[in-house]
From TrEMBL:
It comes from Tychaedon coryphoeus. This is ST7 protein. The chain crosses the membrane at residues 21-42, 62-85. The gene is St7. Belongs to the ST7 family. It is a multi-pass membrane protein. Signal peptide: none annotated. Keywords: Membrane, Transmembrane, Transmembrane helix.
Length: 554
């Protein structure tokens, strides 16, 4: 019985929702008919004549004030809508109407799936959104003390957002701590230091840990945050390497004695890989590029399974600096695989190598006359592939947008990844003669191949819709985030802009020509109400004059 009652209520509710969704015109005409029937007892005609007499007594100053106030209010709404759209990428009025008003008006899906399927669908959608918006550690991230902080000292701007630094803190706790840290005083101090938000407190904790023991993670923190030059950071990382290798050898011998020893060995492995990678980056920044390449190759051979650090992207950048294009091609052949996650570095480096073969002799005029050769077609297809993966990169490579310091984390296919790639690879594109010219002539052709990037892709999955929101969290506020596909202005911004302009013009005309505008307003209103008066006259001629008396008798 209870189920039958619930089913009846659901059917009744669905009928009401259906009636309000599809039969609103019928409800509207019924209300108009009732108002017409009740016009005598409600004294509608007398009220209308009273209102018209009141309006006739108003002076033009009232209309000037009315239109001016309307213009001011619509202007304020326009300013707020524009600010909200620039900050959040959507219209405030539209968001409120969709989030709050639509459920009240019954704008929900009538086909209610089963609970199990609904839960499964929600889980799938959440997994999809998480995978699309996964944030990755920037393999070429800069040093906080020697690079990010120097930028802050010079410009007074913070290049890193709180969200980005919080993600780095989570990474440090994952890579540099384990469950047995409380058994060692120095590691226990560093476990708290990685959770500390205040930079000075972290540095003080690192010094405190070093007073107790030679702690590799303490040296890492000082090299990253306290060292003001790359030379100082390299010295600290060398000390960290000495301490880290000792811990790694000890834990390697004990890793099979239990789960705790295995976790400690995993932590020591992460610490050692991180130190060696940062030492290679220091060598690259100090001009010892061949030494950096050797260190990276040795590290990849020693720890081939630790692909999470994406050391091959550091290696690609160093090889491009050496102009060792054959070695770059060999690295790409290994990592540009269908089963591996792509990146802007892989896609655009592959495009650069193919462009290098034809860019020095490429001419758009000659290509339009004779057509593209096979090599040129391959280069153009590689550029289109790269642009489809990350459409934000070309504007930075072509210097159509200004670069900023790359964040410590990037979103693949997003603006943050484009900044990180262009920051390090722009010089390599400039070094190849004609490569930027070829990119300039061909990159926009990608968008003709993918007219609806959010619905379908060509060589990759459809472009994720969450990149703008995630990039706004990763990138500083002074940077204008690149948005793809470019969003059109919401309807309510255009509507409020038109309303503000129209009412301002009415206020100005009413102030300058009060009599003429009064005549125009009366003519406009009479024209507007002419169809309604015509319909009412026809209704009165059709319906009997004693209809109201008959209805009262009933």
């Amino acid at each position: 019985m209870a189920e039958a009652g619930t089913g009846f209520l659901e059917q009744l509710k669905s009928c009401v929702v259906w009636s309000w969704t599809y039969l609103w015109t019928l409800w509207f005409f019924i209300m108009l008919f009732l108002v017409y029937i009740l016009r005598v007892p409600l004294k509608i005609n007398d009220n209308l004549s009273t209102v018209s007499m009141f309006l006739n007594t108003l002076t033009p100053k009232f209309y000037v004030a009315l239109t001016g106030t309307s213009s001011l209010i619509s202007g304020l709404i326009l300013i707020f809508e524009w600010w909200y759209f620039r900050k959040y990428g959507t219209s405030f009025i539209e968001q409120v109407s969709v989030s709050h008003l639509r459920p009240l008006l019954g704008g929900v899906d009538n086909s209610a799936p089963s609970a199990a399927s609904a839960a499964g669908g929600d889980a799938d959608s959440s997994r999809q959104s998480v995978s699309e918006c996964k944030v990755w550690r920037n393999p070429l991230n800069l040093f906080r003390g020697a690079e990010y902080n120097r930028y802050t000292w010079v410009t007074g701007r913070e290049p890193l957002t709180y969200y980005d630094m919080n993600l780095s803190a989570q990474d440090h706790q994952t890579f540099f701590t384990c469950d047995t840290d409380h058994l060692r005083p120095a590691d226990a101090i560093m476990q708290k230091a990685w959770r500390e938000r205040n930079p000075q407190a972290r540095i003080s904790a690192a010094h405190e840990a070093l007073e107790l023991n030679e702690c590799a993670t303490a040296y890492i923190l000082l090299a990253e945050e306290e060292a003001t030059t790359i030379v100082e950071a390299e010295k600290l990382f060398k000390q960290a390497l000495k301490a880290g290798e000792g811990c790694y050898r000890r834990s390697q011998q004990l890793q099979h004695h239990g789960a705790q020893y295995e976790a400690q060995h995993r932590r020591d492995t992460n610490v050692l890989v991180y130190i060696k990678r940062r030492l290679a980056m220091c060598a690259r920044k100090l001009g010892r590029t061949r030494e950096a390449v050797k260190m990276m190759r040795d590290l990849m051979k020693e720890f081939p399974l630790l692909s999470m650090f994406n050391i091959h992207e550091n290696l690609l950048e160093a090889l491009l600096e050496l102009q060792a294009y054959a070695d770059v091609q060999a690295v790409l052949a290994k990592y540009d695989d269908i089963s591996l996650p792509k990146s802007a570095t892989i896609c655009y480096t592959a495009a650069l190598l193919k462009a290098r073969a034809v860019s020095d002799k490429f001419s758009p005029e000659a290509a339009s006359r004779r057509g593209l050769s096979t090599a040129e077609m391959n280069a153009v297809e590689a550029i289109h592939r790269a642009v489809e993966f990350n459409p934000h990169v070309p504007k930075y490579l072509l210097e159509m947008k200004s670069l900023i310091l790359p964040p410590e984390h990037i979103l693949k296919r997003g603006d943050s990844e484009a900044i990180a790639y262009a920051f390090f690879h722009l010089q390599h594109w400039k070094r190849v003669e004609g490569a930027l010219n070829l990119l300039h002539c061909t990159w926009e052709g990608t968008f003709r191949m993918i007219p609806y990037p959010l619905e379908k892709g060509h060589l990759f999955y459809p472009y994720p819709i969450c990149t703008e929101t995630a990039d706004r969290e990763l990138l500083p506020s002074f940077h204008e985030v690149s948005v793809y596909p470019k969003k059109e202005l919401p309807f309510f911004i255009l509507f409020t802009a038109g309303l503000c302009s129209f009412t301002a013009m009415l206020a100005l005309l009413t102030h300058q020509f009060p009599e003429l505008m009064g005549v125009f307003a009366k003519a406009f209103l009479s024209t507007l109400f002419a169809p309604l008066n015509f319909v009412m006259e026809k209704v009165e001629s059709i319906l009997p004059s004693s209809l109201w008396h008959q209805l009262t008798r009933i």
